[in-house]
Amino acid sequence: MIGCPPNGRARNVLFLFLTLILTGCFGGGDDNAPNGATSLSGFYNIDGLILPSGSSAVDSDVNDPNASYASNDTPETAQQLYVPVILAGYLNLAGQGAPGRSTEGGDPADYYRIRLKAGDSIQLYIPNPDTTDMDLYLYRADDLTLVDAALGAGQNESLSIIEDGDYLVEVRLVDDPQMTVNASNYNLNIGSAAGGSDTAGVRLRHDFVPGEILVRVTRDQISSVTELQSILGGKNKGAVLAEGSKERVIRLSFSTGDQTRTLLHTLGLRSSSSKSVSSGFVSEPLRRKLDTLRVIKAMKRRMDIEDAAPNFIRRPFLQPSDTHFDKQWHYDLIHLPEAWDTYTGNDEVVVAVVDTGVLLDHPDLSARLTSDGYDFVSSPDMEGEESDPSDRDGIDPNPYDPGDQAEDGSTFHGTHVAGTIGAHTNNGVGVAGVGWNAARIMPVRALGVGGGTSWDIFQAVRYAAGLSNSSGTVPGKPADIINLSFGGGGLSTIEQSLFDTIRQMGIIVVAAAGNKARDDKSYPAAYDNVVSVSALDQAANLAYYSSFGDTVDVAAPGGDNTADLNGDGYPDGVLSTSGDDAAGTISLVYGFKQGTSMAAPHVAGVAALMKAVWPEMSADDFFDLLRSGAITQDLGAPGKDEIYGYGMIDAQKAVDAVLGGIVPTALIADPAMIDLGNSISTAILNIEKTGSVESPLIVDSLIDDADWLSVESETVDDDGLGTYRVSVARTGLADGAFGGLITIVSSINTVYVPVYMQVGSDDQFADAGHHYVLLLDPETHDALEEVQATLIDGIYHFSFSNVAKGQYLLYAGSDMDNDSVLGDVGNAFGAYISIDQPSVITVDKNASGLNFRTEFNINLFDSQLLCSEESTTRRLGGSGNVESD
């Protein structure tokens, strides 16, 4: 490789799911350099902008010597943050990690000062907890009293805020001799109204008995309870057996003084937890609870201990069943919970997911799959590494997704799509599916390494529809709905004829409109008799990547991983089931992805709910309902438009439409909560009537309760229904967090809309870390040129001078750990046009306006996955990267 940064090392790109390479060329340039100078013969100047996520921030003392620096190692030097924020950071012990700014002296802790309110969530993501461990602490800012802490042993630590206040957040690297790499990036996500997520690990504030631990031993490692007693320091010095036996769970106890010190020493830990927290006040009961959590963490890492946990004190309470449902914002957008209140299905509708196959053993999918899926990938080169290496001889009845072998991990695209449609809902694990109990998934594999051929897709669709095909067999029950989250150019009358036939059979076919960010026809979505779906972001605007045009029929949430509009500390991607094989084996995960691929299954899932309510519903019926507006929200120009088609799919309206009953009229407000963060000043509030159109509803009054808050009508009818603009005025207000309330009184019911905002002393601009920009050889992926971007008011500016005529890929990202690799976990990373479409660009003239985005990768942990027999090989990961359609 060539093109070295100032520290003398070439910076490489770690490719993440780069499976779709497009060819394009620069536009908007001329034969003169941007500064007016004439280019050298055969050499040209190019420049552009890089947009980070609007809520991104970076640790102020990372290892990269080219990044700006300000110490945040103590409570006194805590770095100021504002809600919401997605932050990337770096910690290391002295002498550990890649050579850089903090290698010699170490950077074991980072402190952040932030104003939080009740219900806010703090999430810490640790890329590899097997080699580097971190803990999360929360203090009151005024007196440094320890409020809560998370001392888990997994990839995620999380805390929930109980009351409003000013806090210090500490991320600390654990000095544990069992850890082999004491240096790592991390992500810290802090968001308002995050639903109080509390799903990963044990918190200090949880109710448990200090000094008591429940242990399950590894039977082939420990022969008796007496042996365990000896290992833990002896009967009189270490942990004392309270009750239990080797064949079941054992309860151990230890007291203060010598027993605590002996036990901690035996497990390789310091005798006091005081060095793991700041110098603030920690009461003796809290210190005992901290020591208990530290002992549990150390026990979990022993080969002779299968599991260890606190002796929790249980009290009656309610929790959401699906652990990550609070992060599936996309369901609220289409009013899916309201639809579930009416109907959750009957397990008789079959949705075929024609895609890359499915990870059949995923715990959120395995119970929702039909037994008659099929693999139609006929080319050995595209088939990939099957779980059975001898099975490389063409199509077979195993629709398992072995991965598409992208350079740094497979996409497991079909698994993500299947989860959105039909993940096992209300099972206490992971995510919910749109169809709840209505949809069973028929996994049909037609895409492999590099995509799929028309032939394989054609046969797969015929199979799903119960038509004759190359397999010589058909499923026991043909699909009621077929989801096709892929596409490309080229019109085929053969394929059009097939979709004409399938519609006549009454089967609904849903497809992704494409990710080319222009008026573009992608097939199969653009065929007649196929429902074409464009993608929306969380604000119900067209996603920046989504194709549009006159062939679009309907819109649905597709996500935007570069934004965090709801301020929950997570990217606004679509969260669903997924896989991760970057480490060489397949892990079952949940990941945020974006694309029209993610939008289409929302429509397929809603169609499944409708079909469950009304089994006789045909494809003709579905299209009639779509055209009438009965199952959509008409968000664009009246009637059908090129952005939304007939509107955004609305699950509640869809179920109501096929029920044919009378729904009580009520006033609703959308959104139900408004958070304007630290810089946004206005938002749109929609006040609508739901239910039977015959029942009258009039808005009697609309009142705000704060001087800084105002509401003005924009497009409102005589009944007071319509759109209102909510505005806040920060001038003259002290720094801090503010909350107000809008009260809407109608002739039928009253609705309350909370409004939140932050006031900071300075304008807060996005900062995703010091950015390096690389031009790569499209064939070899060698870095040919490198420059460093300049951050101005939240936007990165870059330019290359005297670039040789030729073709290139354009990538950018941060390198906080200074390991000379872009795209590794924890760093910002992006490509022109986007990660899912890294376009080959032709340099044959000067060009400006090469603008693109970077984003942090966010992964989610679900401890429920560890309950399976394969738990020792499964670790929750996932990708925050976009998908191809």
In short:
By secondary structure, the protein is an alpha+beta fold.
Share of helical residues: 10-25%
Mean pLDDT: 80
The strand order across the widest sheet is: 18-19-17-20-21-22-23
Number of helices: 12
- Whole-number radius of gyration? 28 Å
Give the percentage of residues in beta strands.
25-35%
Q: Low-confidence parts lasting 5 or more residues at pLDDT below 50?
A: 1-9, 15-39, 193-200, 271-280, 314-320, 387-391, 860-884
Number of strands: 46
Shape: globular
Coarse structural class: alpha+beta
In angstroms, what separates the terminal alpha carbons? Answer: 32 Å
Largest sheet: 7 strands, parallel
Structure description:
This protein is of the alpha+beta class and 885 residues long. 13% of the residues lie in helices and 29% in strands. The strands form eleven sheets. It has a seven-stranded parallel sheet with strand order 18-19-17-20-21-22-23, sandwiched between helices. Helix 10 packs parallel to helix 12. The longest helix has 18 residues. The two termini are 32 Å apart.
